[in-house]
Design brief:
Layout lengths: L1 H20 L2 H21 L2 H17 L7 H8 L8 H17 L3 H14 L7 H17 L3 H18 L2 H17 L3 H24 L1 H45 L1
Helix pairs in contact: 1-2, 1-3, 1-11, 2-3, 3-5, 5-6, 6-7, 7-8, 7-9, 8-9, 9-10
Length: 258
């Protein structure tokens, strides 16, 4: 069960760097790793990794505007059982519907889905990020509908919860989105203040990331070695299969001759 988590971590790293640098190429790499992690988690029945992989796949697919390409992944995920305490799995089902509606430009229907997520997801330490994500998505949807006051209200709720839960990366998204909303509303002074908060926090997080660069380089090296090991194991299994087939064929020939 370690392997899905390795590829999940790789996806997290690429997604974080992609979002901080608006680099869709890196987001595509994150999407690829999340796909691989999801497939492995399904095979090993790693329940928690399956749910986290699917959550991250949704976010990456939405960012890349390819939510319609998740059909086979959704079919596999939607067949899994949903228990009473499966908060994330229920959230994911709603999130898939919400992102699909968003992709189809059915914005008000998408808002209905996201409001259901906010109502049904507890804002405790374990699930705070899910609620913040829902509030952010509602803010983005309201912004697309040009409902500025409503969008800013959702961001205030998201900021209070992010402050309480210590979700600094979520605060980064909140400051950046608020700056864009205020700029579009021609509230330049407030937009600049929010953008300055965004830049200061981004610099702080960037320094933290620089301090962990050596660990990430080692991680990348370890990941490459793991990929090579998997390929070698697959090639070895294929050779054993071919050898077994040849031995069976030889045995049949000898049986006929004797």
């Amino acid at each position: 069960q370690d392997q899905p988590k390795v590829y999940l971590l790789a996806g997290n790293i690429y997604q974080t760097i992609s979002e901080q640098n608006n680099d869709s190429r890196l987001m595509r790499r994150a999407y690829t790793y999340y796909n691989k992690a999801f497939d492995m988690a399904l095979v090993s029945n790693d329940r928690s990794s399956i749910d986290i992989c699917f959550s991250n796949l949704l976010a990456a697919a939405h960012s890349l505007d390819c939510i319609d390409k998740l059909g086979s992944v959704w079919r596999a995920y939607s067949t899994l059982s949903v228990g009473r305490g499966d908060v994330r799995r229920r959230y994911n089902h709603s999130a898939y519907r919400m992102y699909t509606l968003w992709h189809d430009r059915k914005l008000r229907a998408a808002i209905g889905e996201v409001e259901g997520q906010i109502r049904s997801t507890p804002a405790d330490a374990e699930h705070a990020r899910l609620v913040v994500n829902a509030l952010l998505n509602k803010g983005r949807l309201l912004f697309e509908l040009r409902l500025t006051a409503g969008a800013l209200s959702e961001l205030r709720k998201a900021q209070r919860l992010s402050d309480r839960a210590g979700l600094k990366d979520a605060l980064l998204e909140i400051y950046e989105l608020r700056a864009r909303i205020l700029q579009a509303a021609h509230q330049t002074k407030e937009a600049n203040e929010s953008y300055n908060h965004y830049l200061k926090l981004k610099d702080s997080l960037y320094i933290s990331r620089q301090l962990s660069n050596i660990d990430e380089m080692q991680f990348g090296y370890d990941l490459k070695k793991k990929d090579e090991k998997l390929r070698m194991e697959q090639a070895h299994r294929q050779r054993l299969f071919v050898l077994a087939v040849m031995l069976v064929a030889i045995a049949l020939v000898l049986a006929v001759m004797l």
